[in-house]
Amino acid sequence: MRIRLNCHMQSRSLPNKFKYLAIETVFFALLFLIFPVLSNYEYNFIELHKERWLQEETVLAIYYGLAELLTSVVYYIIVRQFLFSKRFARFILFTVIYLVAYHFYRSGLYYATAHMTFLPTHLRSVSQHWYDAHSRINFSIVYMSTRLICVVSLAYFIRSMKQDELLNTLREQHLLTELNYLKAQLHPHFFFNTINNIYALALKGSAETAGMVARLGDMMRYILDEAEQDSVSLCREISFLNDYMALERIRHEGHEIIFDVQGVHNEVEIAPLLLLPFIENAFKHGLSEDTNRGFVKIIICVTSTELILDVANSKPVAKQNSRTGIGIRNVQKRLDLLYASRYQLEVRDEQQEYSVTLILKRYD
After folding, report:
1. Where are the transmembrane segments (predicted)?
2. Do 229 and 269 meet the contact criterion of CB atoms below 8 Å apart?
3. Residue 258 bridge partners (DSSP)
4. What is the pTM of this model?
5. 126-164 pLDDT, tens digit each
6. Rounded CA separation 315/360 (Å)
């Protein structure tokens, strides 16, 4: 198993339509089958102590539970069709029609069940009793209204879930778009700085120019082939940084440049080119031409819970413009997008040294 240090999209185990269908199925089963059965068990067990009550009440609850489930599904469709589309007049009209139709449906079901001789005696006798006692339409409306409230609540719950999911999808798409934009800005910025370095050596007639061009080719290949991925091996990223350090050592021969790597292994992954802007910034400001005996010290350390980058560089004698470069601004935005609360960034600006410590939290 690889330990990722980048934030990625979570795949869903089931298509959304099956997830919603499962929620609806469980809801209707509980409301019209399970709850009526349990309610009848409790009532008959405590109050009546009838013989064979288990079988009789189970048949009764399931029979009428299925009958009411069908009518409630019809109303569920009415809610989704008219209420959510804000066609309120039609919704009210269909609700009234539904309640009136439900009364006659319920009365007809009681009457028909009571006269079906092949049905169990208990079911027929209860149906006849209900037909005689609940013949008024106001009882049907009051009785069914409580169920309709539950059905409307389910519809709103499912709608809320869909809206939240859509909002999350739009946010993910926005994040991907912004990350791709930041990467697109980073690559030209890096190549511009590196080509400037090679150009400076070429003007001096340095024999190292050809080697720098070859290393730049390897780095370009890495950026084109791997840096567009969501995450890369930290070992591969450090290999890329080594090539970059080699270019800077040639350019700044005679300066103190330290690059120390501790605890890195192949199982650790990181967002590509995330560390480079901090290192670039150290060379840009720490080894500028007006810095006496400048230095750059870089330490990358991996522990069981964190990845730590510590970068320190000397400050120039003459104070330079301290405006943050595009690379640093972009990497701060990438950290916010990819790691959110799972990173710490500390910047220390002292009299003779500028240092940055970045801590990324590891997770499986």
Report:
1. 21-41, 61-79, 88-105, 137-158
2. no
3. 297
4. 0.51
5. 778 777 776 666 666 666 777 778 888 888 888 888 878
6. 26
